[in-house]
């Protein structure tokens, strides 16, 4: 049986961790089709992993198995889980990483990965990506039923996602991540009507754009990006570096003063 197994981690590519995960998968199912989503998630950043997984998973074929490992609690009592939805399988530590993608999925079953038959024998609890998540994905790709891996769970852990606040004439969002181009991703999915002014901290946003070349060079601009959220950008430059923007910086959208 050939299935797509898509990997998302904070492992990087320097230390061979990703190679070990792929080696385990291929040892169990040599025909598995392994796709790398990213291995450059900021270390321990569960929210960033959830944002990226949410942005990409829907573009994969039905039946894809997503293995997402950003796991600061590796080796603790946090569960390792498989979530089966109507279209996909998600394998991850139960630490909130699956919060955003599962919001849009109809869940059929959640199980904890406990059956030793589908776990590698090990003498360390520091690499569950290799020893638990990788073999689970490989056996799942061979057609092993979700129910065989462990006990069924009623729910999964969720992390809080920063919501846009509304105060009188202002919508207040915030910066939640940066992409490799230095664009600042906000938590804003939709804009209010009759926008007059936009600021990041106290820095004005010059223009709302449909493409990056429409932006005013050397200034902050706003665009709906591929993550599904609005982004602050500077054409052909890093908004993050040019304006020293930080995660958590507030984005103020006013609706009663003219945009300058």
CATH topology of the largest domain: Rossmann fold
Principal-axes shape call: elongated
End-to-end CA span: 59 Å
Q: What is the strand tally?
A: 14
Poorly predicted parts: none
Residue share in β-strands: 25-35%
Which structural category do the helix and sheet elements fall into?
alpha+beta
Q: Which radius of gyration do the C-alpha atoms yield? A: 21 Å
Which class of the largest domain in CATH terms?
Alpha Beta
What's the number of helices? Answer: 5
Largest sheet: 7 strands, mixed, barrel
What count of structural domains? 2
Overall average pLDDT: 95
Record the strand order, biggest sheet.
Answer: 8-9-13-12-11-10-14
The amount of helix comes to 10-25%
CATH superfamily of the largest domain: S-adenosyl-l-methionine hydroxide adenosyltransferase, N-terminal
Tell me what the CATH architecture of the largest domain is: 3-Layer(aba) Sandwich
Instruction: Give the topology string: H per helix, E per strand.
Output: EHEHEEEHEHEEEEEEEHE
